Amino acid sequence: MKKGILLFCLIVQTAFSKSVSLDNLIDELNRTSYENEIYRVKEKRDLERGEVYKLDSLNGVNVEVENEYRDEDDVYKTKGRVKYADFYVDAEKWKDDESGVSYGVEKNIKDLIFSKNDSNLEKLKISKKVELIEFENNLQLQTVELVNLYRDYKEVQLEISIRENALKILSGEKNILQKSYDMGATSKIDLDSLTYSYKNIELEIGNLKKEILSIRKQFFYSFKIDLKDKKLENLNASTLNLDRYIEKIGERDTERVRLEKEVIEKNIKYLDYNNKMPELYLGVERDEKANENRVFFKVSKDIFYKDLELMDEKSSLAEKEIKLSQKTLDVKSERLKYERELYSLVKNLEVTSNDRALEESKYNIKKLENKLGKIRYLDVMESFNDYLELKIKEEKSRNKLNAFVYELKIRGEIK
Q1: Residue among 23, 14, 18 nearest 237 (CA)
Q2: What 3-state DSSP class applies to 72?
């Protein structure tokens, strides 16, 4: 009967709890992050911009109406123009007079060669690449935050597990020591050393469980991830072949600055062309009232003109070139920091593991010496507490190293 109840409990626990890894949560974040929504909004905006730029002069119909009144003659005149793209119709009407209508085609040859909308389309194509990089960087930043929160959660969870195992050990020792104390073979201070250590561990576990609940809420508020009935798996990341990831760190940041520089260069290209090339209008017109046709050619050009916008863009280009050069150095510096941090975490784990192994051996020896009556149990508890703290430190160091490897791989993601 008891076996049946135990089996039923195991089945229920399995059905209502799910083990998830950090990789599972990263995949979920990639699907549900608000950064996806922001990027889709920008994509739609860029699509609409592109359609408008492609319309060029076909974007809308221009209508102009002008009224003129002469008081001395008590007459008025109405003039109007309707223009669509390069086609226009002019109409003129005097009071008690016939209407005059003319229509024609007028084209700026300068825009046929290279128009502002041509330039805008070139810049838009580059800007879309910049926005993709910004989206990937923002999502990457969120993912690193997720890794750090997962690390903190597992750090607390691992400490709870280690301290709960310590309670099991001390519980058995406590029963033995209590009986020995009752028989007068153990001093009160020895029993108290174990009892107070036991109570302190219980208090620590209570505080840690509250912290776990707080971090679970943080998962939901920060990433919309509900950990209810979910168990987080331990972090486990390979430290092999990490150089290839380190070499990729910061590549997107450098590319983003390079693309921003290219946008400025495209703008300078158009402004320079616009300033040097004169306006060249070629047109054909039919005047119905005069019953005549005419062909016209107009040229206009600003001379001795200083374009402040062009000057500002050239200044911005010089600044961006400096930033690109500095960004290249910053990226190399960042990679070196990751290398040093990785080395430091690996070294700390090795040192802590060695210290823990040594303290564990000392604790086992002191337990034996206590049984032989050579030392007091108070000394055993001091060694046990030292071993316990080192065990916690070791697992936290391992957890921190694994989380850092995840971060390193995310920052140097290879596509």
Answers
A1: 23
A2: coil
Distances (CA, A) of 386 to 23, 193, 295, 389: 35, 14, 100, 5
Per-block mean pLDDT, blocks of 10 residues, the chain (415 long): 39 56 95 94 95 87 81 72 87 74 88 92 96 96 97 97 95 87 85 92 96 95 91 90 94 96 96 92 84 87 89 96 97 97 97 97 94 90 95 97 96 79
Enter the tokens of residue 158: 């691992």
Distance of alpha carbon 29 from alpha carbon 20, whole angstroms: 13
DSSP 57: G
Whether 281 and 106 have beta carbons less than 8 Å apart is answered as yes
Strand partners, 61: 84
Contacts of residue 170, Cβ cutoff 8 Å, sequence gap at least 6:
194, 197, 198, 201, 384
Strand, helix or coil for residue 356: helix
Tokens of 331: 């990226």
The torsion angles phi and psi of 301, rounded to 5 degrees, stand at -155, 130
Total-model pTM: 0.85
Q: How far apart are CA 412 and CA 162, in angstroms?
A: 34
Q: Could you count the other beta carbons within 10 Å of the beta carbon of residue 49?
A: 15
